[in-house]
Amino acid sequence: MIAQVTGSVVAVGATWAVVDVGGIGIKTLCGPNTTAELRHGQQATLATSLVVREDSLTLYGFGTAEERDFFELLMTASGVGPKLAQAALAVLTPDDLRQAIVTENLVALTKVPGVGRKGAQRIVIELKDKVNAVLAGRPNDAPGPEPVPTAEWRDQVSQGLQGLGWSAKDAEAACSRVEHLAEEDSSVSVAVLMRAALQTLARP
């Protein structure tokens, strides 16, 4: 299993990144919170998970090993595939997800696009006894990607939201709702803006 890749970022899109590892370009599918923090030409380390299917081998990349471990845990639940697990980690942090599952907070879980009440109940039933064991002992100081300037943040955030399944109209509306954050602080990272935009979409 490929658990981690380290190298220079040679290309990055809204939901993917290519990292040069020893002259080989490794493409990883990433959530928008991760790609928003990657910059072409920078060195990056991504925790990865290889998903094997009959007709494909797909590598998923994450800013932290904790996100990767939770991604793999979520996929052990019935009806949860890579895309849904990735969306869950874009909307909620690993700690938020763990808390929602342990406390049976179905409202929080249904904020994830594609998760209804029955799906949330299934996740709670199947993972409640596993979340703490899987994430126990994970260091909190693992280095993540460096933040990038907020130039062209709107396109990055909008494309990332659309990659998670929201419409272009909803994505643009979310960008408008968080635009004041960029205006108030020119140094705010795209990842922070992405998280804020996701929170506005997750509200009932």
Automatic annotation (TrEMBL):
<dbReference type="Pfam" id="PF14520">
    <property type="entry name" value="HHH_5"/>
</dbReference>
<keyword id="KW-0547">Nucleotide-binding</keyword>
<comment type="similarity">
    <text>Belongs to the RuvA family.</text>
</comment>
<dbReference type="GO" id="GO:0005737">
    <property type="term" value="C:cytoplasm"/>
</dbReference>
<comment type="subunit">
    <text>Homotetramer. Forms an RuvA(8)-RuvB(12)-Holliday junction (HJ) complex. HJ DNA is sandwiched between 2 RuvA tetramers; dsDNA enters through RuvA and exits via RuvB. An RuvB hexamer assembles on each DNA strand where it exits the tetramer. Each RuvB hexamer is contacted by two RuvA subunits (via domain III) on 2 adjacent RuvB subunits; this complex drives branch migration. In the full resolvosome a probable DNA-RuvA(4)-RuvB(12)-RuvC(2) complex forms which resolves the HJ.</text>
</comment>
<keyword id="KW-0238">DNA-binding</keyword>
<dbReference type="GO" id="GO:0048476">
    <property type="term" value="C:Holliday junction resolvase complex"/>
</dbReference>
<dbReference type="GO" id="GO:0006310">
    <property type="term" value="P:DNA recombination"/>
</dbReference>
<dbReference type="InterPro" id="IPR013849">
    <property type="entry name" value="DNA_helicase_Holl-junc_RuvA_I"/>
</dbReference>
<dbReference type="InterPro" id="IPR011114">
    <property type="entry name" value="RuvA_C"/>
</dbReference>
<protein>
    <recommendedName>
        <fullName>Holliday junction branch migration complex subunit RuvA</fullName>
    </recommendedName>
</protein>
<keyword id="KW-0067">ATP-binding</keyword>
<keyword id="KW-0227">DNA damage</keyword>
<keyword id="KW-0347">Helicase</keyword>
<dbReference type="InterPro" id="IPR003583">
    <property type="entry name" value="Hlx-hairpin-Hlx_DNA-bd_motif"/>
</dbReference>
<dbReference type="GO" id="GO:0006281">
    <property type="term" value="P:DNA repair"/>
</dbReference>
<comment type="function">
    <text>The RuvA-RuvB-RuvC complex processes Holliday junction (HJ) DNA during genetic recombination and DNA repair, while the RuvA-RuvB complex plays an important role in the rescue of blocked DNA replication forks via replication fork reversal (RFR). RuvA specifically binds to HJ cruciform DNA, conferring on it an open structure. The RuvB hexamer acts as an ATP-dependent pump, pulling dsDNA into and through the RuvAB complex. HJ branch migration allows RuvC to scan DNA until it finds its consensus sequence, where it cleaves and resolves the cruciform DNA.</text>
</comment>
<dbReference type="GO" id="GO:0009378">
    <property type="term" value="F:four-way junction helicase activity"/>
</dbReference>
<dbReference type="GO" id="GO:0009379">
    <property type="term" value="C:Holliday junction helicase complex"/>
</dbReference>
<dbReference type="InterPro" id="IPR012340">
    <property type="entry name" value="NA-bd_OB-fold"/>
</dbReference>
<dbReference type="Pfam" id="PF01330">
    <property type="entry name" value="RuvA_N"/>
</dbReference>
<dbReference type="Pfam" id="PF07499">
    <property type="entry name" value="RuvA_C"/>
</dbReference>
<dbReference type="GO" id="GO:0000400">
    <property type="term" value="F:four-way junction DNA binding"/>
</dbReference>
<keyword id="KW-0378">Hydrolase</keyword>
<feature type="region of interest" description="Domain III">
    <location>
        <begin position="149"/>
        <end position="204"/>
    </location>
</feature>
<dbReference type="GO" id="GO:0005524">
    <property type="term" value="F:ATP binding"/>
</dbReference>
<feature type="region of interest" description="Flexible linker">
    <location>
        <begin position="136"/>
        <end position="148"/>
    </location>
</feature>
<feature type="domain" description="Helix-hairpin-helix DNA-binding motif class 1">
    <location>
        <begin position="72"/>
        <end position="91"/>
    </location>
</feature>
<keyword id="KW-0963">Cytoplasm</keyword>
<feature type="domain" description="Helix-hairpin-helix DNA-binding motif class 1">
    <location>
        <begin position="107"/>
        <end position="126"/>
    </location>
</feature>
<dbReference type="InterPro" id="IPR036267">
    <property type="entry name" value="RuvA_C_sf"/>
</dbReference>
<dbReference type="InterPro" id="IPR000085">
    <property type="entry name" value="RuvA"/>
</dbReference>
<dbReference type="InterPro" id="IPR010994">
    <property type="entry name" value="RuvA_2-like"/>
</dbReference>
<keyword id="KW-0234">DNA repair</keyword>
<keyword id="KW-0233">DNA recombination</keyword>
